[in-house]
Amino acid sequence: MHFKLFTHCLLLSFLGAYSVHAQDTLRVSILQADSIFLRNNLSLIASSLNVEAGKAQVIQAKAYPNPIFTADLNAYDPENHQLFHIDKTGQKAFQLEQLIVLGGKRRSEIELAKTNAAIAALELEHLLRQLRFRLRSDLFTVGRQLFLLRKYNHQLDQLSALLAAYETQVSKGNVPPKDLVRLKGAWLKLSNDRAGLLELYYATQTSLQTLLNTSAVVEFQFSEDDVEKYIQLKDLSDILSAAQQHRPELLIVQQEQTLAEQNFLYQKRLAVPDVNLFTSYDQRGGAFGNQVNLGFTVPIPLWNRNQGNIKAAQIRIKEAGYKMQAAQNEIANSVRNAFAFYTHTVSEYQQAKTLYTEDFDITVNGMIENFQKRNVSIVEFIDFFEAYNEVLAEITRIKTQLVIAAEQINLLTGKDIY
Asked: What are the chain's domains?
């Protein structure tokens, strides 16, 4: 009786946890989840601000250097013992300077800023695809986990009812105690499997709640059609071509190669000296009274012609070329292997679909009825019960794996292939 009380309390505590969460549940389809994700995800919002900052840097690069105004005013006249002697008989001087940027440096700075802004936009796209892969994988995972949990809950209810009936029969001497022990063992094993699944379920919930920026329990509403839409005949060469055109990481490397080339040109242009023009007025300090001057300053490139930075920029171009080749090879290899795994998963799913039908649930109910009527032995019943749960878990794994394998290809190509 103590064991019976314990099992019922444990089951009620699990079901109680669900009833609490049911009060604050976010039920979403895949399209609704995508919409909430794009609107609420904090990582995306932060990364989008980085894109805006990159655009602001382009505006800054287009701005021309400001002129410099200098005023030189007499502070103390020792001959006349006068402070701030700056009237008609005193002394003051003014100068206006303007830096003239030569050699196309400003154009290079604008090009560099535009490329950096493009990289920031591609990094946002890369982050978006990574997070969307997590979102869709988690959605189908949590959906399948909840499906299994509900199955386990129902089975635990059935086993609890059988345990109560068997305890009565054992007390009357109608059933051997060993059969009751076997039933308790089956209950404990299923409860343990459920506890492990529940831990995974809450971990997936944590990930989903973070992605959607919500505290509600996410319940994914989907049908088998949502799973089967991922089964499509695609040609590997088309997928490889799409990856070369759309993969954000590869596009980022391409932009970095462009950035290296632009930086090389910019460093060469920096070797061209800029000219600083100025005009000045001097009331009494020059050769003449109220003297107005024009002039310019220009550095003479004798010792520093920016040769070190130019050489380093050349090396960066070679480095970017090797990075491009490495990225292309890595992407091609990852896409081929992901496609091979996806093909295997589709085959596995199609085979499993022919094996698992709704007849399984009917058979389970029939086995329970026959067991209660003692048409089935305790050993046969428990063997079937455990085999059925293994089938449920395996079917769940295969369906979830199909979705994740297809979404992995979407992630690796940078395009929604499936």
From this structure: 2-64+101-271+306-413 (1.20.1600.10)
